[in-house]
Every structure is written in C-alpha cells, then in structure tokens.
Amino acid sequence: MQVTVVRLDRDEVFVKTLELPEGTTLQQAVQEAGWTVGNNQKIALWNVLKDPQTKISQGDRIEILPALTVDPMTARRLREEKNQKPENVLIRGRNGGKHRLL
Questions:
Q1: Whole-number Å distance between alpha carbons of 22 and 3
Q2: Residue 79: enclosing H or E segment and its boundaries?
Q3: How far is CA 26 from CA 7, 44, 49, in A?
Q4: C-alpha dihedral over 40, 36, 23, 12, to 10 degrees?
Q5: What gap in Å lies between CA 65 and CA 49, rounded to an integer?
Q6: Are 26 and 39 in contact (CB under 8 A)?
Q7: Which helix (H) or strand (E) is 97 found in, with range?
Q8: Is 4 left (phi over 0), alpha (psi -120 to 50) or beta?
Q9: What is the pLDDT of residues 34-46, one digit of tens each?
Q10: HSE-up of residue 20 (Cα within 13 Å, Cβ side)
Q11: Are 53 and 26 in contact (CB under 8 A)?
C-alpha cells in the first residue's frame, strides 16, 4: 500500500511517499521514512493525533508534528491586546472580521 509521510519543521515541510506492507503501524512508517519522533513531537494521521501503534491503510497521510511554540489561548490574548492599543486604526475589531474605523 502507498502512504505519504510528512515531517513539519518550523521553516520547511519534508514529504516522502512510501510503499509499505499491510498491517504497518504509524511508528513503523515513520522509521521506514528514515525519521524519528522526538520527545516534543506528535504523530498524526490526516492531522488527527493518533497512537504510534495505530495501523495505517492505503493512501494515508502520516504527519510528524512539531511541538507548539506558543499556547493557542496565549496567542489569541496577545492578538486581542494588540488590537486594543489606541494607535491601532482598527480598534475593537478582530482578525478577519468587519472592523470599525475611528
């Protein structure tokens, strides 16, 4: 069966397409690609976190995801604080929404 193994780094994306036998696990597929999973990295199947012992099937996309650099809630709070500054022309707006101008 043919699967795609993707490794995401901060600056690059590496993609390998492999031909593997039936019954292969996520961990085995990553090893066949020549990569290892670090302590802070996670393995996902179609962008859904999975156990490394999960069996894969034809056409699966296996992803090695890096650790989060910032907590999503913290990132949202920082964006909102930036939007509330008086020098910001788009006060009380949110990213991607309809903004009110001064």
A1: 11
A2: helix 72-83
A3: 13, 9, 11
A4: 80
A5: 9
A6: no
A7: none
A8: beta
A9: 998 888 888 999 9
A10: 26
A11: yes
Q: Can you read off the two tokens belonging to residue 75?
A: 């990132």
CA distance 28 to 88: 51
- Cα(87)–Cα(55) distance, rounded to whole angstroms? 53
The two tokens of residue 4 are 């795609």
Cα gap 80→94, rounded to integer Å: 7
pLDDT in tens, 74-88: 988 888 887 776 665
Both tokens assigned to 41: 């990295």
pTM: 0.64
> Residue holding tokens 């788009």?
90
SS3 content of the chain, % helix, strand, coil (to 5): 20, 25, 55
User: CA-CA distance, 33 to 7, in Å (whole number)?
Assistant: 10
